[in-house]
Amino acid sequence: MTHPHSSSNSSVHQYTRSDLKALPSRYRAQLVNSLTGFKAANLLGTQNLEGLTNLAMVSSAVHLGAEPALIGLVMRPPVVERHSLENIQSTGVYTLNHVHPEILQQAHQSAAKYPRSVSEFEAVDLDVEYPYAFAAPAVAQSRLQIGLRLVEIMPIKHNGTEFVIGEIEWVQIKGDILHEDGYADIEQLDSVTVSGLDNYHRTSQIERLGYPEPESK
Amino acid sequence: MTHPHSSSNSSVHQYTRSDLKALPSRYRAQLVNSLTGFKAANLLGTQNLEGLTNLAMVSSAVHLGAEPALIGLVMRPPVVERHSLENIQSTGVYTLNHVHPEILQQAHQSAAKYPRSVSEFEAVDLDVEYPYAFAAPAVAQSRLQIGLRLVEIMPIKHNGTEFVIGEIEWVQIKGDILHEDGYADIEQLDSVTVSGLDNYHRTSQIERLGYPEPESK
Q1: Interface confidence (ipTM) of the complex
Q2: Nearest to B178 by CA among A28, A9, A202
Q3: Which residue of chain A is at minimal alpha-carbon distance from B29?
Q4: Residue B199 belongs to a domain
Q5: Which of A88, B6, B148, B183 lies 20 to 30 Å from B190, alpha-carbon distance?
Q6: Among candidates B16, B111, B187 on the partner chain, residue whose Cβ is nearest the Cβ of A201
Q7: Contact B211 A205 (CB under 8 A)
Q8: What rounded mean pLDDT belongs to chain A?
């Protein structure tokens, strides 16, 4: 029973909680990671107190609020991200960096399990820069970089992950993509989006729909 | 100073924490909501104990883990989402429903501030269905529906938002989009992604990159 589903017709696939639990672990991980929808692809830049840099692809950045400007990040137990989390805890700062197609292979490769002594910047051949002399490395090639200061780490007790909350210290956007109203048109930066664990996508705009009013329909 | 930035050249736009604080509130909301990257567009379906249904567009669904299968959702203070949050608290269940272009206008419109007595399903003309006789309404037109049971609500004290954690009770996928390894190819469902507060995008696949190994480069 590797693909359990009780479909009433061939194109509808259904899984219950117990179906999901019965799936092989890797299959379940692929499936469940696909369900929330498209995700942001960001490179997480950190360094330890000795200045050894670390880079990891993350897809769990979530907007928490604009005032103060807060971003959440789900950090899972795997080894790779532990280095990042330890660095965030010891330095209190980190960066998020948008990924575009020209650096996608390198960005994805940074998620491999390198030993602690290896900087993923060097391993995947991306360059470090330090806007505002910030104590966490940004990715020089990235077109939208965010410097964050740790606000709180909330443990999620149900699965051992951590919800890392940071406030934006600075933003650097390389491109004239700002609309009159403040919207940053990230499609113009060619920022990619990710689905599941490893599928990357370009976007093409459908429409800006504006602020919805109850009267209109 | 409506568009403050200290650019060293015309195409680099920089904002510090204090620049962000000095921005007009709507401009700041547009800007900061754009920064994390592309987001999932989901319709959140709930109902109260009397069966009055509620629908709201949300862009903050985040994958928390596959075993157990957990999804997080950031709920902000606005009125519209308060109805949803109250319903989730009273019934303990809710649904997330992917949005495709044919229902995008209606989905976006559901975010308008309707009075509590109005069901957004009716107001925007989307149909209710109850897979598995679940006690929360799903959007019949949606091609990927998820039923969730509330696990925990974690208050985020820094801005008054709530992080709502739910476990997947059931999933229904309308389309033969499952790959051999479990990946659900949501681009084949035409699921849309959102940037900022109101810009919607289709996707086009670049590449699945597989599991990265430290040896390869």
Answers
A1: 0.93
A2: A28
A3: A66
A4: no
A5: B148
A6: B187
A7: no
A8: 92
Say if residues A84 and A75 touch (Cβ distance below 8 Å).
yes
CB contact under 8 A, A109 and B169: no
Task: Evaluate whether residue A125 is within a structural domain.
Answer: yes
CATH of the domain at B143: 2.30.110.10
Handedness of CA B66, B163, B150, B152 (dihedral sign): positive
Q: Residue B78's pLDDT band (boundaries 50, 70, 90)?
A: low
Name the residue of chain B whose CA is nearest to A164's CA. Answer: B156
Nearest CA in chain B to A145: B35
Q: Average pLDDT for residues A131-137, to the nearest whole number? A: 96
Nearest to B214 among A112, A178, A198 (CB): A112
Domain range enclosing A121: 39-197
DSSP for A115-179 reads -TTS-HHHHHT--EE-GGG-SS-EETT-SEEEEEEEEEEEEETTTTEEEEEEEEEEEEEESS-B-
Beta strands in chain A (DSSP E): 12-16, 39-40, 42-47, 53-58, 62-66, 69-75, 93-98, 128-129, 138-139, 144-156, 161-174, 193-195, 199-208
Per-residue DSSP letter, B184:
B
Residue A217 has a pLDDT of 41
E strand or H helix at A28? helix A25-35
Q: What is the pLDDT of residue A78?
A: 53
B10-66 per-position pLDDT tens digit: 699 999 999 999 999 999 999 999 999 999 999 999 999 999 999 999 999 999 999
DSSP string across B110-165: TTS---TTS-HHHHHT--EE-GGG-SS-EETT-SEEEEEEEEEEEEETTTTEEEEE
CB atoms B184 and A168 under 8 Å? no
**C-beta atoms of A42 and B28 within 8 A:** no
Q: Between chain A and chain B, how many beta carbons pairs sit less than 8 Å apart?
A: 394
Which amino acid, residue B205? Q
Measure in Å the smallest separation between the Cα of B50 and chain A Cα atoms: 23
Q: Is residue B163 part of a domain?
A: yes
Among B67, B108, B152, whose Cβ lies nearest the Cβ of A209?
B108
What is the number of domains present in chain A? 1
Q: What is the pLDDT of residues A67-76, one digit of tens each?
A: 999 999 999 8
Mutate to test the interface with B, among A203, A211, A215 (most CBs of B within 10 A): A203
DSSP code, position B84: H
pTM passes above 0.80: yes
